[in-house]
Design a protein that fits this description.
alpha+beta, 3-stranded antiparallel beta sheet, 7 strands, elongated
């Protein structure tokens, strides 16, 4: 059981270091954040609350260390903000510069403003990755203006 705790602790500490590194690199680069409460954020909140509950069921030092690592990794997820800025698109603590975005399109839904990005990833045999960011309707004009200013020539129609 101790080996399992050490393995899980190492995994969550690696995730925590990755998230902390990404947070430090992307801090201040997001000008307009996406919608804060998505399904993924709600699921991470549930996992965070469940990890907090396990504090009451620790039996030894290994359990304490594992629980702290889990709470740290899940808690850091809430400090990371996805969105767009002057330098590019930030998603899950990763900055995608505007020059790596091949095209974008947007669509207004009834309760949000969605922007679709096509990433030109040159490291994996020029594979396309589509990224969708959802913004509040109140940010629609600001998002359009920023996109037009930063990558206006890349506005294309993307099949959704």
């Amino acid at each position: 059981m101790e080996m399992f705790n050490l393995f899980v602790t190492a995994m969550f500490m690696a995730v925590a270091v990755y998230l902390l590194w990404g947070f430090a690199k992307s801090r201040g680069k997001v000008k307009i954040t996406d919608r804060n409460w998505s399904v993924a954020r709600i699921l991470f909140l549930v996992a965070f609350l469940l990890a907090l509950v396990t504090v009451f069921f620790v039996e030894n030092v290994y359990d304490i260390v594992r629980t702290v690592a889990t709470i740290l990794a899940l808690g850091l997820f809430f400090f990371i903000r996805d969105g767009i800025g002057e330098e590019g698109v930030v998603t899950l603590a990763r900055l995608i510069p505007w020059d790596q975005i091949r095209g974008y399109d947007y669509k207004e839904n009834k309760n949000m403003f969605s922007v679709y990005f096509v990433e030109d990833n040159k490291t994996k045999s020029n594979t396309d990755y589509t990224l969708v960011m959802n913004f509040d309707l109140k940010d629609e004009e600001a998002v359009k203006e920023l996109l037009k200013r930063c990558i206006g020539k890349k506005h294309i129609r993307i099949r959704k």
